[in-house]
Amino acid sequence: MRVLSRELSSHVGERVTLAGWLHSKRELGAVSFVLVRDRAGLAQVVVDGAIELQPETVVEVEGLAVSAAQAPGGSELQEASFRVLAEPVEPPPVELRRPVLKETLPTILDHAAVALRHPRERAKFQIAAASLAGFRKALDGLGFVEISTPKIVASATETGANLFKLDYFGRPAFLAQSPQLYKQTMVGVFERVYEVGPVFRAEPHETGRHLAEYTSLDAEVGFIRDHFDVMTYVREAVAGMAESVDERMGLAVPEVPAEIPWVHFEDTGVDDVDLAPADERRLCEEHGDWLFVTGFPSAKRPFYTHPEPGRPEYTNSFDLLFRGMEIVSGGQRLHRYEDYVAALGGDTESYEGYLQAFKYGMPPHGGFALGLERWTARLVGAKNIRETTLFPRDRSRLSP
Amino acid sequence: MRVLSRELSSHVGERVTLAGWLHSKRELGAVSFVLVRDRAGLAQVVVDGAIELQPETVVEVEGLAVSAAQAPGGSELQEASFRVLAEPVEPPPVELRRPVLKETLPTILDHAAVALRHPRERAKFQIAAASLAGFRKALDGLGFVEISTPKIVASATETGANLFKLDYFGRPAFLAQSPQLYKQTMVGVFERVYEVGPVFRAEPHETGRHLAEYTSLDAEVGFIRDHFDVMTYVREAVAGMAESVDERMGLAVPEVPAEIPWVHFEDTGVDDVDLAPADERRLCEEHGDWLFVTGFPSAKRPFYTHPEPGRPEYTNSFDLLFRGMEIVSGGQRLHRYEDYVAALGGDTESYEGYLQAFKYGMPPHGGFALGLERWTARLVGAKNIRETTLFPRDRSRLSP
User: How far apart are CA A98 and CA A88, in angstroms?
Assistant: First the structure.
């Protein structure tokens, strides 16, 4: 029966079978030390003489589990015999045996199928998976319902820019920039909803923080007073994600304060109508790992944003900064039909399906969106979100 | 403080506040009975005289919780005062007060934003959400890792047909028909992976079982013997989904047998190379709610399908039928690079990124995909999967 690498030490004295990839090999006098990589980690196998198999050969290895203080996990496989399941047709273009890949990012991305096999590379995506599980658990516990909404849409959700256009049975359609309009509609049905899924932005610039397609964690909630209520849900979601990463991966995440501090946009010392990346870094230096900036100027927030009562040049909106970068954007939305008609300046035709919800009674509500790749990048200290995206998409990259 | 409708009976004798939508009203002599709908259900409110508010008005209602055997949940709100949060601008186009909506399916779909508010309509999507949670829980427990792979791709994944074409920064790209190639690649990284996400098929036909966009529950697993190993994971996933629906919704799902029966395609009595809908119905009549059909003819399975050893006219593939309809398709895949080169007939250029994984060593593996909307339709007895899709997309329907 197959055992995993991390289970080897519970089978000392038994003959067992490992299965995985030949990660690396090293000859030392009359014996060879082979590391076999499986989904759980690495196991050391000791064989007499040289071993002809090449790195990334898929093998089953039968042998005797023996305590060995110097081996990963404190035990190794001896008296081993290899059975080859599949052989590589050429040597891998990245050197997986190194503790950290030394290839450049473009090389790593071009050869993602094999580069992702590196233990440190794949750990980033286990952190992402743990984060998703924590997000869902936190919101499920608060009575949210998971929804699946269409990605092929008839009109823009955010602005008319950055839209991917599509041939939909002979007529034009677009890829959804966000599930914004649908998640708001679903507040009318379930009050509290979330969706995890791809969103699409035809970003003309190549930066380390934007992609043409990314995974958005969206939530929306009804019967709120204002955006400060939404911020309490953001805090719960993020704390749930951090806890899940800690539990599953043992990665120490900066503790999420019970109340994340906040500062109004007008008190940030920013002269413009939005934060620049340098502002985000400075604010976190001043205030700590976690900071809400609230009350963004209406000039830079989408049409559905609720104005700040009495000061319509500001909005009931917020960003959450984490370690010097915006990872969440959200706020209170308009909820009255006539406010939408006014905000859209009469162009209600292309939003007819969306406006239905508001025609028939919607409570005060708000929500937020968190970019998974940015979150993971912040956690692992990656400078470029391409490092925390399995197969990134940008202006120049459409494959693999 | 707000209480939910289902919590009312725990507050008898107290003054509490409900919040929700005015679902229906009925005058009876000197009093009116109002049903208020919130995310948990319906609560009865009794007021003196007539009530002017229209259906779907969003309200907060303060009053005294009183036991009342004839009310939903065994209690009602008396001495009530209403506060209006938002008013509908016109009467809803569907009559939500009826036990079952009596409008036609096109009318319901055209007015989804409000039709989905009906308790029976929204219950279908709570069943879908519970199913997703059960799928993930079952596979997480088996060591699978959740992945997010791109939906904008450079080439077809299934066949060249049914592809949506996209303008990607001035060059052609396509919407992914499935995460097939990426989930196989990720077997090389994590051995066991799953993804829940949208898939896109430019289906030219309008049937009750096809959509242009649907939610696919995909899984892939390495180090298998053959497709029968994959079928054991399908069984675990489906049993987890059924259990979760039962737990969350109290809906009795037909018990999933510990071993789901199977029949080889050649023993189905089908003359063609694939099952027709009528065959699926007949086979379930003969064999029960759950049935695997294995060994489909290679003529109708995609290029990556592993042939049946010794009989290459058949494949190591399967469909799972549930209550007379295919809900899962899967099988063992090719895993050797040279087998892919042969299967693609030399057209390896457009699959270069995909073939990387196989160049550098892949174990025997297989996987499956389950369509969420079909699954839910089977559970609730819906004839058309548009009834179990929030905002369906087909040849003629692009909004809402």
Answer: 19
Q: Please tell me which of the candidates B39, B58, B364 has its beta carbon nearest to residue A190.
A: B39
On whether any CB of chain B is under 8 Å from the CB of A168, the answer is yes
Q: Which of B160, B183, B138, B127 is nearest to B368 (CA)?
A: B183
The full length of chain A comes to 400
- Sort out which chain B residues have CB atoms less than 8 A from A354's CB and list them: 113, 400
* Confidence band of A193 (pLDDT split at 50, 70, 90): very high
Residue B206 banded pLDDT, cuts 50, 70, 90: confident
**Could A198 and B197 be called an inter-chain contact, meaning their C-beta atoms sit closer than 8 Å?**
yes
Query: In this complex, do B361 and A58 lie within 8 Å of one another by their Cβ atoms?
Result: yes
The torsion of the CA quartet A340, A343, A349, A353, rounded to 10 degrees, works out to: -30
Residue with tokens 């036609």: B104
CATH number at residue B71: 2.40.50.140
Residue A143's pLDDT band, with cuts at 50, 70 and 90, is: very high
Written as one letter, the residue type at B388 is T
Is A397 within a domain?
no
Q: Which residue of B has its CA nearest to A358?
A: B88
Min Cα–Cα distance to chain B from A263, Å: 28
Measured distance CA(A230)–CA(A224) in Å, rounded: 7
* Whether the Cβ atoms of residue A326 and residue A368 lie closer than 8 Å to each other: no
**B373 close to B214: Cβ distance less than 8 angstroms:** yes
Is residue A91 situated within a structural domain? Answer: no
The CA distance from B363 to A94, in Å, is: 20
CB contact at 8 A, A329 and A368:
yes
The answer to whether A189 contacts chain B (CB < 8 Å) is yes
The rounded distance, in Å, linking the Cα atoms of A321 and A286 is 12
Assess whether A321 and A199 both reside in one domain. Answer: yes
B86 touches B92 (CB < 8 A): no
Per residue in B73-116, pLDDT (tens digit) is 999 999 999 999 999 999 999 999 999 999 999 999 999 999 99
Query: Is A400's CB within 8 Å of B185's CB?
Result: yes
Does B213 reside within a domain? yes
Within A229-364, strands assigned E span: 262-264, 290-294, 307-308, 311-315, 317-322, 325-333
- Domain range for residue B58? 5-86
Indicate if B73 and B122 belong to the same structural domain: no
Q: Cβ of B225 under 8 Å from any chain A Cβ?
A: no
Residue B2 φ then ψ, to 5° = -70, 135
Q: Which residue in A has a C-alpha nearest to residue B390's C-alpha?
A: A149
Q: Which of A2, A149, A213 lies nearest to residue B391, judging by beta carbons? A: A149
- Of all residues in chain B, the percent with pLDDT exceeding 70 is 99
Tell me the residue ranges of DSSP E strands in chain B: 15-28, 31-38, 41-48, 58-67, 75-86, 145-146, 152-153, 165-168, 171-175, 192-200, 213-222, 262-264, 290-294, 307-308, 311-315, 317-322, 325-333, 365-371
For A117, nearest residue in chain B (alpha carbons): B189
pLDDT digits (tens, 9 = 90+) for A11-25: 999 999 999 999 999
User: B275 vs chain A: nearest CA distance in angstroms?
Assistant: 27
Measured CA to CA, the distance from residue A37 to residue A33 in angstroms comes to 13
Domain with residue B239: its CATH number is 3.30.930.10
Contacts of A57 in chain B (CB under 8 A): 361
Tell me whether A335 touches chain B (CB under 8 Å): yes
The answer, for A105 touching chain B at a CB cutoff of 8 Å, is no
Residue in A with minimal Cα distance to B111 = A356
Q: Extract the tokens encoding B72.
A: 């939903």
Closest-CA residue of A relative to B185 is A113
Give the Å distances, CA to CA, from A79 to A28, A57, A67, A73: 16, 19, 13, 18
